[in-house]
Input
Amino acid sequence: MLKDNRKQNWAQYMENGKVSPEIRPEIVESWSRCDTMKVDIGSGKGSVASNDELQKRLEGKKELLSIARPVMEDIFEIIKKTSYSVVLTDEDGVLLDIIINQDIQEKHESLNFFRGTFWDEKNVGTNAIGTCLAIDKPMQVIGADHYCLSHHQWTCSAAPIHDTNGRIIGCLDLSGRVEDVHTHTYGIVVSAVKNIEKQLAILESYRLMDIALDSILDGLMIIDTDMKIKRINNKIPELFKMDEEDVYKVDMNKVLKDVDIVNNIFINKHKFRYSDITLSLEHKKIECFLNITPIVFNEEVMGAVLVIREAKQVRKEINKLAGFKANYTFDNIITKNDRMIELINTAKRISNTNCSVLIEGESGTGKELFAQSIHNESHRKKGPFIAINCAAIPKDLVESELFGYENGSFTGALKGGMPGKFEMASGGTLFLDEIGEIPLEIQPKLLRVLDNNKVVRIGGSYERDLDVRIIAATNRNLLDEMSKTAFRQDLYFRLNVINLRLLPLKRRKEDIIELAKYFLGVLNQENNGMLKRFSSSFEQTLLEHDWAGNVRELKNIIQRAYYLSVRDIIDNAQLPNASQSKISLAEDTGSESLKDMEKNSIEHALHLNKGNAVKAAESLNISKATIYRKIKTYSIDVHRI
Output
């Protein structure tokens, strides 16, 4: 009776548009849409997508297909004795996968109901697939509920599949003969879709977790309590220099042989951090920083998370934070002297080589300026530039400072050990200033490091590879030191591959005024664009001085004169103990810092103006705001003045 009513209701609607109250609203609305789209009731065959289009759709729905297929197989196992097929479509109603009941395969094919065909309402009228996608609700369509006459022998139940954002991404459908209609097929489809959506959500969460883990610069590894690797991110194969599948075969007991992970992590549940540890693989060693955190669930340790950071990456960041970089280039070297220009050209030519350079010259001639310029001209310019003053290191710390030490190698050593300056400079340049001060007993080890490009830390048992360019400097005569057996001859020749002997300022008379004006320009700019200048007598005095302290002394004198000058003209009155032709430096010109000079200048100006800060500012050619800020900075008691 029910089937006859459906047919009758369908016929009345198609003939005169009469809508029986027995017809579900969803069906009436679908028929109306089909009328609007001018669907042919005599057709009902799905249009076929091109092979390229189908492949593109299959590729785009790989995850959905991989999750839905096992669910479809489980459903088919339950209903295989019926006449139903199980179908998966995309959001456009294109059949992507189908498990066909052999009893109805021929009828499927007669309607183009196979993979790669469109079963939306526009193509085939009202049907469970197309209608559920159109209204975003599960649907069961029985016999004459279908818009097209050729579908009246079918029954189908379908439900839309959503992603975690609620967007329709597909549809699951059960289609069979109308005489085998069962209400339970609707419930099966709805339940199966919920299962698929949950699995999609889990897959997405895993995918997001993988993306998050892979975006981390550090290597991340999860191990269980049997020391088996359960999961890694994409940084681990890069660190281990192995294929991903080979990483999972690694024996972590051997890799972590120096870490008591069982007691510390699995039993005591402690979180451990190891700085600068060496992990041992079969044929290689990995220098890294290692964090180990236990995974605890219901108070039971399930395993551990290892965060492994490559040591060279950490050192790169440390070097950046510590300011281990070269700030000067050859453009910063001011000279008109032919010999100095020749030295600059030589230094430029050898910058991109890896050969050692020995820079000789008196104190203050610009040895480090040349060293930094060579580094910045080389292919190592993006690497660290580490300068170490060998004369400033206590004799008993030179070896550890240069070569580093392992954990527990001596009393007071940091836990986990410490890399030396050679390791820290990896990929860049190590500038050994005052190389003549290196203790004689350290020199053989230094020579070995330079010859082998490898270093062994204090307390260490293996050599670490180095990639460092060495530039050394000295104000001593190393040939004299060699004759006194204070400096090894073999080390001298190892360092002295390229020799740059810088000229003292007294032999560069043409550069004195040029340098002085450069320092003056910097000071003018630093002090709100002041325009102080030298008197001719001041310049003449500079030319007549012998400059024992070289460029460093000249810079100090210009700074001192600048801040002591209350007028725009800097003359001999601002020179310390100036005589007619010589600058007499009875005391060390470096004993008074730039801040001391500035403070003294302000106090002097305040004294001349009887404590009037505004007038003092005018005499110093600075703003009122600046002088009040400086008075506060230097805690100057204006009332006392």
User: Anything to note?
Assistant: The radius of gyration is 42 Å. The longest strand covers residues 285-297.
